[in-house]
Amino acid sequence: MNRKSILLLCFFSLSSFALEQTYFNGKIMPTGTRELSIIVTDTGYYPKKPIAFVGEKVKIFVTSTTKMPSCLILKNKEVYLEAKKGELAEGEVFLDKVGDIEIYCPTTKHRSTLVVLEHPKDKEDRIQRQIASEKLKGLKIWRPKDD
Predict the structure, then answer these.
(1) What tens digit of pLDDT does each residue of 99-133 get?
(2) What is the CATH number of the domain that holds 53?
(3) Rounded Cα–Cα distance for residues 46 and 65 (Å)
(4) SS3 for 84?
(5) Number of domains in the chain
């Protein structure tokens, strides 16, 4: 190998070490927008139970596969979207607490649930882990003596 190749090899190997030093620092980004696509069919909503996390702004897109008039209403969230075949309706909602939000349509009697979960990072911060095998002070165990 010539000198130029060795210099290039050293340069690329050093730059990969620099990447490793900054790549795993775990920078937390602000919460973004989750996009949910929901399809209204003859049998109900698809997906049946969409999932989102607390603190997210959710953008909902709705369309239908049937010509029958249908809609999507999120209970207690003031969201009403009309679902028409070949058209896309769009709405937004902010999820502020854990739980199930009912999705329904009074015309077609379809029902579903939007499941709102606690974010794993928030759950990890909430639960304090302790060492289970830590030796208790003052605990004495009786053992028989060898004769």
Answers:
(1) 999 999 999 999 999 999 988 877 777 776 666 66
(2) 2.60.40.420
(3) 11
(4) coil
(5) 1
Q: What is the pLDDT of residue 19?
A: 47
- Residues in Cβ contact with 102 at an 8 Å cutoff, skipping those fewer than 6 apart: 74, 75, 111, 112, 113, 114
- Burial code (b: 16+ CB inside 10 Å, e: under 16) for 14-30 equals eeeeeeeeeeeeeeeee
> What are the CA-CA distances from residue 13 to residues 16, 31, 37, 64, 89 (Å)?
5, 35, 44, 54, 51
Longest dimension (CA), the chain: 91
Q: What average pLDDT does the structure give for the chain?
A: 81
Q: Tell me, yes or no, whether 85 lies in a domain.
A: yes
Given a contact cutoff of 8 angstroms between Cβ atoms, the answer to whether 30 and 56 are in contact is: no
Residue 118 lies in a domain: yes
Report yes or no on 26 lying in a domain.
no
Q: What's the N-to-C CA distance of the chain in angstroms?
A: 75
